Amino acid sequence: MNAGGRSIALIGFMGAGKSAVGRELAARVKWPRFDTDEMIRQRFGSSIPEIFAKYGE
To answer: What residue numbers bound the domain in which 28 lies?
Structure first.
């Protein structure tokens, strides 16, 4: 299925289950899933907590 320029963003507190819901939702609608935490880890080579410790939130 092509998302046709549409997207869904899951927003919430850490530990709220956004990643788990996102994985399930992407599988059900057959859309690609993008995890911003993972994108940041790949770009900067550090985890989110490491980045926060170094630069602040």
So the answer is: 18-55
